[in-house]
Amino acid sequence: MPLASLPLLADWPAALLRLLLPLRCLVCGDPGHDDLDLCRACLADLPWSGRACLRCALPLPDNALIVCGSCREEAPPQAATHASLLYLPPVDQLLVRFKFHQDLAAGRLLAQLMQRAPPPWSCLPLVPVPLHDRRLRRRGYNQAAELCRLLPMPVWQGLYRRRHTAPQSERTAEQRRENLFDAFDVRGPVPPRLTVVDDVMTTGSTVMEIAETLRWVGAEEVRAWVCARVP
Ligand SMILES: [Zn+2]
Ligand SMILES: [Zn+2]
């Protein structure tokens, strides 16, 4: 019988579970370290996000201002963005495995890493970037919602995608914004302050479109927290 189908696995004491399923580095296969499916060496080498733009999380040189040139030119609708990691090896492969290959162990590890590098603000409640129903059915789960579920914070489920949009890859930042125009809507009253959660931030167009939607329907302040930022 596969372990995943054992009844009440979640109720088993952690120590017993550890004996049955010892921690293994998801990158190199060595024994896990520090309660993670990651070995000591791979943990030490992770590309944590360092100094970055307060508004869009773009990495910045040490001597730069705290807001990047493009956010200074035109402030994005989100008040702040925090990335825990950079989209570099091995984080990029872990995210691909989680997003496209049903590797939920990789998702759990990424959520644990997000918890170790949280935003410097109180980020309640979390709002996962929604998938359209059609894509959700095809993929089986929403990676942003899954990350939120694994983080120990309340989640607001009122945001949804009102129409299917074509994939964002291979588009410029401007085309991405156009592609997403009016793509999101909300059900029910909106909390005054929210933190949008996504797995990867590339140009920031999704977070910006969502922040604009949430502010339009009454949110006072929208911030964003992503697992990894494309540098
Ligand atoms: Zn390793
Ligand atoms: Zn910026």
Q: How would you describe this structure to a colleague?
A:
By secondary structure, this protein is α/β, with parallel strands linked by helices. 32% of the residues lie in helices and 15% in strands. The chain has a four-stranded parallel sheet with strand order 1-6-5-2, with helices on both faces. Helix 4 (91-100) packs across helix 5, helix 5 crosses helix 7 and helix 8 packs parallel to helix 9. It is globular, with a radius of gyration of 18 Å. Residues 1-5 have low confidence and may be disordered. The structure holds zinc ion (2 copies). Residues 25, 27-28, 30, 39, 41-42 line the site of one zinc ion.
Write a short abstract of this structure:
The protein is of the alpha/beta class. Helix content is 32%, strand content 15%. Helix 5 (104-116) packs across helix 7 (143-150).
Walk me through the topology:
Elements: H1 14-20, H2 40-44, H3 69-73, E1 80-86, H4 91-100, H5 104-116, E2 126-128, H6 133-139, H7 143-150, E3 159-161, H8 173-180, E4 184-186, E5 193-201, H9 205-216, E6 221-229
Parallel strand pairs: 1-6, 2-5, 5-6
Antiparallel strand pairs: 3-4
Helix pairs in contact: 4-5, 5-7, 8-9
The chain binds zinc ion (2 copies).
The site of one zinc ion (ZN) has 7 residues, from α2.
Provide mean pLDDT, rounded. Answer: 89
Based on CA atoms alone, the radius of gyration comes out at 18 Å
Main beta sheet = 4 strands, parallel
SS-based structural class? alpha/beta
Detail the poorly predicted runs.
1-5
Task: Write out the strand line-up for the largest beta sheet, numbering strands in chain order.
Answer: 1-6-5-2
The end-to-end span amounts to: 43 Å
